[in-house]
Amino acid sequence: MYIHQVAAYLPAHVITNEHFTRLNGLSHEWIIERTGIRERRKAATGENTNTMAIEAAQRVLAAAPLCPTDTIDLIVGATYTPHDTIYTLAHAVQRAIGVADIPVVSISSACSSLLNAIEIVEGYFAMGKASRALVIVSEHNTAYNNEQDTVAGHLWGDGSAGLILSKERLAPTDLRVLDLITAGAGGIGKADTAVTLTPVAKGIVMPHGKDVFIHACQYMARVTQQILERNNLTVADLNWLIPHQANLRITRNVLQALGLPEERAVSNIDRLGNTGCAGAAIALAEKLDQIQPGERVAVTVFGGGYSYGAMLLER
């Protein structure tokens, strides 16, 4: 299985830390120290999870002339901030790109949904039910966020990304998916209450941030080590690490646990905040052209709920 192309869409409106200083007294310096976030993007009026998903889909298809739209035979969408729970982002993308009568699936496994979506593609490919897939991850966090919340209100940003995956290599620059691991950890710690978004309550709540921090650090480091060992590789064989973009302190903790220098991590949280399951895909889109032949990339994620995973790529 190969990742042929990746592209991202980010709303134009930038929200700096000063916004939260004015709103609830949190200083720029405090937010930087605790999270590494300097600014984040906010969807404009009229934008939502589905419109951002469509933008990402159109961008990734435009960047992939070797994979015409009419050859896409599977769409998998992922989000935990849906605009519509029935007419999902995957349905909206299908209508926008005009490919009828193909499997269309939408999933949510919190911030780890990117890898679950890719694993669904892997299953369709293995069963011979598809050969070229469009994966779209999109989060409209600010639609659900309570900015007055001094615990987590300053964390969230909006954005989306699209990936084209194929069963066969389409171009020499394609990233080969060497391995993929996902798992749920719903029975661990405070998984049931640490991060919640109950639609009727209309807000993202994170009352147990420390529990999230501890388990995110542990699981992302552990599953990255696991996927390397499963492929007879060591950390020294890894060129880039793309972690879930939740908190810069989590990223640094994972790097320390793995013994990787900070310059080997791909991070966008300082500019974009926590963009949920889209964060790692946006980071991959930003890094894509810089990955050299023979280099290996690990994508590792952790989501509220809890869920986690790792993917190993090679160019």
TrEMBL record:
Parts of the chain that traverse the membrane: none
Q: What is the lineage of its organism?
A: Bacteria, Pseudomonadati, Bacteroidota, Cytophagia, Cytophagales
Beta-ketoacyl-[acyl-carrier-protein] synthase III C-terminal domain span = 228-314
Signal sequence, start to end: none
Could you tell me the keywords of this UniProt record? Answer: Acyltransferase, Transferase
One of the GO BP terms on file = secondary metabolite biosynthetic process
Q: Name the source organism.
A: Hymenobacter elongatus
Q: Name one GO molecular function term.
A: 3-oxoacyl-[acyl-carrier-protein] synthase activity
Protein's name in the database = Ketoacyl-ACP synthase III
- Beta-ketoacyl-[acyl-carrier-protein] synthase III N-terminal domain location is 107-171
Pfam families on file: ACP_syn_III (PF08545), ACP_syn_III_C (PF08541)
What is the superkingdom listed in this entry's lineage?
Answer: Bacteria
Record SUPFAM superfamilies: Thiolase-like
